[in-house]
Specification:
By secondary structure, this protein is of the alpha+beta class. It folds into two domains: about 150 residues, no CATH class; about 230 residues, Aminoglycoside phosphotransferase (APH), C-terminal lobe (Aminoglycoside 3'-phosphotransferase, Chain: A, domain 2, Alpha-Beta Complex), CATH 3.90.1200. It has 13 helices and eleven strands. Strand 2 and strand 3 form a beta hairpin. Helix 8 runs antiparallel to helix 9 and helix 11 crosses helix 12.
Length: about 400
């Protein structure tokens, strides 16, 4: 595919963003943003003729390689300067941030010489936070950040194997991989400037304490009051506990099965970071896998469990799906060294918040039913008159 050719936009991404002026403007800007990034980082497209790039809910992801004959030294310099801008944009004059970016320039240039992906995100808060979290993780447990242009909303990332996620992996493989990744991703805050960018899980809970009752009333009380009160109890107790616990870590708040991909180079897991080992000396199950799309926050690590519970619901045992859901919460919590009861509480509150979000949107009845089934089951009183769990739609499934 020639450098001058426009990258095709995946149809579902076009449909999602063509309904608003802001979305249409972003879609129209993509060719310019892509060309700018290719020139800035001396890249060429690595997309077969007629092939579509990958995409998530809010971004297009394009396979690229370093341009033939490109200057590795200038790529290194551009990468270092870009990453310094990313870290310092809200912390002007941060000498430590600049030094950290400069020290990583050589490894970034080496990584850029191989396969990578260019990610162009629709402008939103989560996209702005992603590079900060990826910089802190530095490739350990998460996709490696190679370069970042915050003004354009573009990042250059190591290329993972998009065809291999935990979505299709057996649960007995997903369990130790996810648990191992959580252990790696749960960094304790330090004095690096990136930490200043993240909001706190406890603050989110306090916000929900005010917002959930108001939304519930405005939406016509779409589910029983007792379920709302169960979520509010979690917000009040975990919000206060979270402020006092001293257990703050960096939390990947959207670590569901599709957001864990295999590394393309299985022989070099977590490049730039020490490889994990079991007590027997064998590689850890999480080696060769990496998290993407972090939606980062600071707080209790148990906040991360919820997305596992609202995904792959049809795989729960049909004889007793309620028990199966609770066992999944317990098993993944234990695999990550987390408190299963705290994970259950946070998951309940998160799904009640999701339910109110779906109740506010037209044609989202199936997603509302899924959130209500998960939340009420976690609360110990599965609501009647909901579809059977194996009939519930998957998150992101188009119901139109």
């Amino acid at each position: 595919m020639s450098q001058s050719a426009d990258v095709p936009i995946p149809p579902d991404l076009s449909r999602r963003y063509s309904g608003s002026t802001t979305g249409r403007d972003w879609l129209a800007s993509l060719p310019r943003l892509i060309r700018h990034s290719l020139d800035q980082w001396q890249l060429e497209l690595d997309l077969a003729p007629g092939a579509l790039p990958w995409n998530g809910h809010g971004a297009i992801v394009i396979p690229v390689r370093q341009r033939a004959g490109g200057d590795a030294d200038s790529s290194s310099s551009a990468s270092a300067n870009t990453r310094t801008t990313a870290v310092s944009s809200t912390n002007t004059g941060s000498t430590a941030a600049s030094a950290a970016s400069t020290r990583s320039a050589a490894s970034t240039a080496a990584a850029m010489a191989g396969a990578a992906v260019l990610k162009v995100a629709f402008p939103h808060d989560e996209a702005l936070l992603e590079p900060h979290a990826l910089a802190l993780w530095s490739g350990r447990g998460a996709v490696r950040l190679l370069a970042n242009d915050p003004g354009a909303g573009t990042v250059l990332l190591e290329r993972l194997d998009a065809a291999r996620s935990l979505q299709d992996a057996p649960m007995d493989l997903a369990l130790p991989v996810w648990g191992g990744l959580i252990r790696r991703l749960s960094l304790v805050p330090d004095d690096r400037p990136e930490w200043r960018e993240f909001s706190h899980v406890a603050a989110r809970a306090e916000q929900w304490s005010d917002e959930l009752p108001e939304s519930w009333e405005q939406l016509g009380r779409p589910f029983p009051r007792w379920l709302l009160e169960a979520a509010l109890e979690v917000c009040q107790t975990r919000g206060a506990v979270g402020r006092r616990s001293g257990r703050d870590v960096l939390v990947h708040t959207d670590l569901h099965f599709l957001n864990v991909l295999a590394r393309s180079d299985r022989g070099a897991p977590d490049r730039g970071a020490p490889r994990g080992r079991t007590p027997e000396g064998a590689p850890e199950p999480a080696d060769g896998w990496a998290a993407i799309d972090p939606q980062p926050m600071i707080g209790e690590a148990e906040f991360a469990v919820a997305p596992l519970l609202w995904n792959r619901i049809p795989e729960l045992p049909r004889a007793d799906p309620q028990r199966g859901l609770l066992e999944r919460c317990r098993d993944f919590s234990l695999a990550a060294g987390l408190d299963a009861e705290v994970a259950r509480q946070w998951s309940l509150a998160r799904e009640v918040e999701n339910a109110l979000g779906y109740a506010s949107k037209p044609r989202h009845e199936g997603h509302l039913a899924r959130s209500l089934w998960v939340a009420s089951t976690l609360a110990g009183r599965t609501l009647p008159d909901l579809p059977a769990p194996h009939e519930l739609p998957a998150p992101g499934q188009d119901l139109h």
